[in-house]
Amino acid sequence: MRATFRVLLATVFSVGLLFTAGTAPATADVVDRDTAPSLRFISYNICGASKTCETRDDAGKAEWRNAIVHAIDYWDTDLVMLQEVCYGQWLTLRDHLASRSGVKYDTTWGAALSSVPGCKRWDPTPETDEPGELRFGLAVFAKGGPGTIDLSSKSVTFLAEPVQAEDRILLCAKATVDARTVRACNTHIDFNAPNTKAQTAEVARITRDFANAGNPVVLAGDFNQLPKHPDMNPLYNHGADVDGNPATGVFQEVDENDKSQFTKPDPVAEPDTVPASGCEQSWDRCRSGEPTASKECSDHTTGKAKIDYIFLSYYWFTSVRGDAMECTDKVADHHLLRGAAAWEN
User: What confidence category does residue 241 fall into, taking pLDDT thresholds of 50, 70 and 90?
Assistant: First the structure.
């Protein structure tokens, strides 16, 4: 069964996440903006440098920015976690969200790579002969003016790399959400199997320490792994992996109670599967969720998989809800993931 997970991931690991301002979820499980819990989150891989994503002229860049901003505003988002971000993209969003009238957003940024050629398309000075600003990494936005994010608390951790590959990081900082301080963390895990396991375990350890120190933790990102894979055991605080081993983490995930995703293996078609690979409809929650990578968003993806997550520390948040949004424009190649929750008082 573990091999089956790897085969599926091999079809989707290169995806970078959808770009859309759409508001309809990918399946019938609707989390309505007017009735969902009041704490709101987005995780979005915006595919800044990938060859599979579009290069835009100035008008196209403004259109892209406005669509991202619309998605943030529509959901009345408290925390936005973006992956695969070129520095120029971050500047575009930062300057707009900080200077507009009305609701503003504070932000922080972390570079995983100092230079990525694909980021030239977002270079603020593209007409020069200089190499330009080509940094590539992660960004966090928090609803509120300057100081909403405590920049003195910012940390950028370069994650373990048993197999040499593209550098990956965990970006964390304290932020004010609904008058409370949370630790907001964002990551993008490598798809090479040894790195996926080691990096996920490291992220789980660091964020668990934050939670154990009394910080409500919001952890989001592209983990390049399926919910029931053993690699995810250090994150979840419930359920078993496909081998029957229990989870050991401190997190719930926003889309874990969508019963349309509580599937069971077919004993005839898949006679070698184990009971832990499925979920019963009678359960309240399941390590599952709507696919966030699919051919709907990218012609380069041949399978469907949930590999993007918004994790919330269990003892601080309740009433979690989540949706993977439809792809309405193939500009990036994952689904935008929306989450909601309430404080656990």
Answer: very high
Contacts with 293 (C-beta within 8 Å, 6 or more apart), sequence order? 12, 15, 17, 301, 303, 304, 305, 306, 307, 308, 333, 334, 335
Q: What share of the chain is helix, strand, coil (3-state, %, to 5)?
A: 20, 30, 50
Q: Where are the alpha helices (DSSP H) in 190-270?
A: 193-212
Q: What is the pLDDT of residues 294-323, one digit of tens each?
A: 767 767 777 778 999 999 999 999 999 999
DSSP 33-86: TTTS-SEEEEEEE--SS-TTS----HHHHHHHHHHHHHHHHHTT-SEEEEEEEE
The string of pLDDT tens digits covering residues 166-179 is: 999 999 999 999 99
Strand order in the sheet with 308-313: 149-158, 169-177, 180-188, 217-222, 308-313, 251-253
β-bridge mates for residue 310, sequence order: 220
β-bridge mates for residue 325, sequence order: 25
Question: Exposure of 281 by Cβ count < 10 A (0-12 exposed, 13-18 middle, 19+ buried)?
Answer: exposed
* Strand order from edge to edge, sheet including 317-324: 105-113, 136-143, 79-86, 39-45, 337-343, 317-324
Selection from 281, 226, 219, 204 nearest residue 79 by Cα = 219
**C-alpha span between 46 and 36 (Å, rounded):** 25
Whole-number pLDDT of residue 271 = 58
Cβ-in-10-Å burial (0-12, 13-18, 19+) of 102 comes to exposed
pLDDT value, residue 127: 61
Q: What is the DSSP string of 227-239?
A: TTSGGGTTTBSS-
pTM: 0.89
Nearest to 323 by CA among 253, 275, 232, 229: 253
Burial class of 24 by CB neighbour count within 10 A (0 to 12, 13 to 18, 19+):
exposed
Query: Distance between CA atoms of 14 and 24, rounded to whole angstroms?
Result: 25
* Dihedral over alpha carbons 327, 330, 334, 340 (to 10 degrees): -40
| pLDDT digits 0-9 by tens, 118-160 | 998 898 765 655 556 899 999 999 999 999 999 999 999 999 9
Neighbouring C-beta atoms of residue 283, cutoff 10 Å: 14
